[in-house]
Design goal:
Blueprint: H1 7-15, H2 20-35, H3 37-47, H4 52-71, H5 77-97, H6 101-129, H7 134-163, H8 166-185, H9 190-195, H10 207-238, H11 248-267, H12 273-292, H13 297-311, H14 314-323, H15 329-357, H16 360-363, H17 365-384, H18 386-389
Length: 391
């Protein structure tokens, strides 16, 4: 007769999964997959003869899939990590063989679902395994996500002129399969130790707390993806310097995000998460406005670096604040999933505004408004509930 699950065994289920090395490898691939459309968007627009608005639909399809992947994160989080690898492998492999808007969007939806499962499950696992210095641990694992994003721009600049899309995408899909198999064969030992520290907290979050974090990550998902999804195209149209086939700006932005995540990991050991969150948002709004006003390549590059450093702390600080509230896996997954929904909506909105106005520069008002809205919400939250954010 099977024994009933104890609180400790339930907690073990909530932190069990691949070892941290395989989680980091999976996040590296997730970073590549999440931002992949930005660097290859000019190629897709040209080869498939798409408008900016149709290009925005491709972004939307992937991030709607990511939303559903995050919403459906299982309680046994290792299934979310490993299952996500399988979906991402299938989606990106099929995308490599597609040749038009409808088939491409369908494949990106599947790959996005897998990415949503990977990102949500991994962040929750790390947030639960590392009870102390949660923000620092999350910044560290998200460093690998950002590293993948950086590598995406470099790889696109090196590979597209020689091999085009199909072969590299098929190889990329295969890497998800290899990483999933490695994670399955190498479970974490820390999960067993963590299960002995504290039982899982099954209490639900207050509704107002869940709504607050949902809105913050919904808007931030849109902000970051607006910049990463359209920056290569923006650089090709408005910069007087076009290094690396227009990929230099996105490479610099993601390099700065990566460095910023590493710096944040150290800084969050001595600084409150909420304080770093607001500083980064304020600087981001100023830098987006500055980026729109210049056509000079070196100055645009400098703004990209500073913008990446400013955006870097937001996700790990905000999710760390959420994890301190001890959400259930489904609640945390929902908040992360809504971030993907914002990433689907607002880049499409940028494409729509660009098509209707005839200027991608005018469409940059979308991410600037998002940065200002996030800053306002962060400040308002501090005044309303200082005891929650002053962690």
């Amino acid at each position: 007769m099977p024994q009933p699950a104890t609180p400790a065994s339930k907690h073990h289920d909530s932190v069990a999964g691949p070892s941290i090395a395989w989680l980091a490898a999976g996040f590296l691939l997730a970073g590549l997959g999440t931002v992949m459309l930005g660097p290859i968007m000019p190629t897709l627009l040209h080869d498939w003869r798409l408008t900016d608005q149709q290009g925005g639909l491709l972004l939307a399809a992937k991030f709607v899939g990511s939303f559903l992947g995050g919403v459906s994160v299982p309680r046994r989080l290792r299934l979310g990590v490993l299952g996500g690898m399988a979906f991402a492998c299938a989606g990106f492999g099929a995308f490599a063989l597609s040749g038009g808007l409808l088939s491409g969007a369908a494949c990106l939806f599947v790959s996005g679902f897998g990415l949503g499962q990977i990102i949500a499950s991994t962040n929750i696992v790390v947030g639960r395994r590392y009870r102390e210095h949660t923000g620092s641990a999350l910044a560290s694992v998200n460093f690998f996500w950002s590293l993948g994003a950086v590598a995406c721009g470099v790889i696109a600049a090196a590979v597209l002129p020689r091999f085009h899309l199909r072969g590299p995408l098929l190889m990329f899909a295969g890497l998800f399969l290899v990483t999933g198999a490695g994670g399955l064969l190498s479970p974490s030992r820390r999960a067993s130790a963590a299960s002995e520290i504290a039982p899982a907290d099954a209490a639900r979050l207050p509704t107002h707390t869940l709504i607050r974090f949902t809105i913050l990550l919904f808007l931030y998902g849109g902000l970051e993806t607006c910049m990463t999804g359209w920056l290569t195209t923006y650089t090709l149209r408005f910069s007087d310097v076009r290094l690396m086939g227009g990929q230099s700006a996105i490479v610099l932005l993601w390099s700065a995000l990566t460095a910023g995540r590493a710096l944040s990991s150290a800084a969050l050991r001595v600084m409150r998460e909420a304080t770093m969150q607001r500083i980064g948002l304020g600087l981001s709004a100023v830098l987006i406005a500055a980026l729109v006003t210049t056509r000079h390549g070196p100055l645009l590059s400098l703004y990209c670096v500073l913008l990446g450093l400013s955006l870097a702390p937001f996700f790990p600080t905000t999710f760390a604040l959420l994890m301190k509230q001890r959400p259930t896996a489904r609640e945390a997954g929902f908040v992360l999933a809504v971030s993907g929904l914002g990433a689907a909506l607002f880049p499409w909105m940028m494409g729509f505004v660009s098509t209707e106005s005839g200027s991608l520069r005018i469409a940059m008002a979308v991410p600037m408004a998002l940065a200002l809205a996030l800053l306002g919400l962060s400040v308002m939250t501090k005044r309303a509930e200082p005891e929650t954010l002053a962690v």
